[in-house]
Amino acid sequence: MATLGSGDLTQGVLSRPGAGLQDALDLRSALARLLDPRGMGAFRVFVFGRAMPPGIDLPGLRRVRRPAR
Fold first, then answer.
1. CA 29 – CA 46 distance, rounded (Å)
2. Residue boundaries of the structural domains of the chain
3. What pLDDT score was predicted for residue 48?
4. In a 10 Å sphere around its CB, with 0-12 CB exposed, 13-18 middle and 19+ buried, how is residue 27 labelled?
């Protein structure tokens, strides 16, 4: 989740006046549901770009290596 900017999002939400623990828990839960492939029915992403340099690194699209079960 970190490569998708979730840390910046979290910091922005929690730095708002009046933000508290419940806001942090709600945000964490929402991010977990959004990014859980089982919750979204497994998804894939196809990216198009125009005038992008060859070999550009898009951190949010790196394959996540999950430990063997």
1. 26
2. 2-61
3. 80
4. middle
> Please, what are the averages of pLDDT over each run of 10 residues along the chain (69 residues)?
71 88 87 76 72 81 69
Q: Which pair of structure tokens corresponds to residue 47?
A: 């990216």
Q: What CA–CA distance (Å, rounded) separates 64 from 48?
A: 20
Mapping DSSP onto H, E and C, the string for 29-66 reads HHHHHHHCHHHHCCCCCCCCCCCCCCCCCCHHHCCCCC
pTM over 0.70: no
Please give the single-letter amino acid code of residue 62. R
Phi, psi for 47 (deg, rounded to 5): -115, 135
Q: What is the pLDDT of residue 69?
A: 64
Closest to 7 in 3D by CA, of 58, 24, 61 = 24
